[in-house]
User: Fold this.
Amino acid sequence: MSDIEFHNREKEIKEILDILDSRPTLITFIYGPINSGKTELINHIMLELPEEYIVFYINLRTKFLASYDEFIESLFEMEMETEATKRKKKETLAELISSVTKVAGIPITREFLDYVFKDKNPKNAFSYIIKLFEEVKNAGKQPVLILDEMQKIGDVKVNGSLIYELFNFFIDLTKEKHLAYVFVATSDSLFIENVYTKAMLHGRCRYLLVDDFDKNTTLDFFDRYGFDSREKELAWNCCGGKPVYIVELARVGDAEGMAAKMLKIRTSQIGELLNSLEAYGAEIEFRGGLHEVVYDKVMEELSKLKENADCEYGYITPEISYLVRNNIIFVDPLTMVMKPQSKLDLLAIRDVIKNA
Ligand SMILES: Nc1ncnc2c1ncn2[C@@H]1O[C@H](COP(=O)(O)OP(=O)(O)OP(=O)(O)O)[C@@H](O)[C@H]1O
Ligand SMILES: [Mg+2]
Assistant:
C-alpha cells in the first residue's frame, strides 16, 4: 500500500476558496499542531486552483536564515540562464511574468536582484514584489503569496525586527492595496501566540486552524485502506487523527504492531526529556530573557492532562513554553486551550507521569 491519496479537508478547502473568491483584505494565518497537514493542504489547493491564480510559494523550512541577505535569497528564485534565455533575455517584469508557471517562487533577474540587495533594506525587496504583483494583475491574473514555516524569520534583524517589516508589507498588500492574497503557515504555536497578541495585527488578519483529523474523518481514512473495525478503533485509540501517523499505519498495514511501536518510542523520548530536566535543569528563552524551567511546574502542567485531553492555560509560562518548544504540547491562543501535539503524545505523557 504505497500510494496514499489526499484525504478530506473539505471544510478548510472551502474556507480558503471563499477567501480567494473575494478581494484580498486580511492576512490569513494557517496554524495547527505539528504534522497536522498544513503544507499538504496548501500544496493540494495550489494544484487545484484555477489558472487565473498565480501562486508564489516559499517554504522556509530548509532555508538557512541568519541574516538579511539569506532572507532575501530565500524569497527569490533566480532565473536560470539557459542558452534560450541568453538569446532572448528577459528585460521587463512583463516578460518575466509571462514565463511564470502557476506555482513558483518569486522570480527575479540578476539586474533586479542587485536593486533588491542594495542597502540591505527590506523596502527594496518589497517594492520589487509590489511591482511584480502589479504586473501579474495587468496580465489578468491574481497573485497569491504563501509563506510556509514563517516562524523561521523570527530572529532575523534588519535595523530592528524583520518580522515587523514583513507584517507591515503584508498589511500593505492586503488591507491597503488589495493587491495579493497572503497566507502564512506555521506549526509553531508560540509564534502564533506572539502574533495574536501583536497590536499591529489586530483587525488585519484571520486565523485558520488545520488540526489533526476528527474521529469520523480518521475512520473514513482507514476504511479507504481496508482496515477492519477492530484495527480502526485500535489505530484511532493510539494515534488519533494525526495525518502523518495514520498514513504510516496505512502504509505498513500492521496497525497493531506499528501503533505499539510508535507509542513506545514516544514514551521513551518524553521520559528521557523529563529525566534530563530533573537531573540537569534547563533554561529557555522566554519574553526576551533566559528563564529557568522548573521541573515540578512542568510536571504540574502535564498532570492536568491526566483526566482531560485538553485544558485552558490562562497565560504562557516558561514551563508551557518549554513543553511547546519540545513539541509535546500545542497551545491555541484563540481558545487559550493547551493540548498534547497528538493523541500519541497524550498516551505517552500519561504513561510517563503515572507514577509521579
Ligand atoms: N489531507 C491529507 N491526506 C493524506 N495525507 C496527508 C494529508 N495531510 C497530511 N498528510 C500526510 O501527513 C504528512 C505531514 O503533513 P504536512 O507536512 O503537510 O504537515 P504540516 O502540518 O505541514 O507539518 P509541520 O508541522 O512539520 O509543518 C504528509 O507528508 C502526508 O503524508
Ligand atoms: Mg508544514
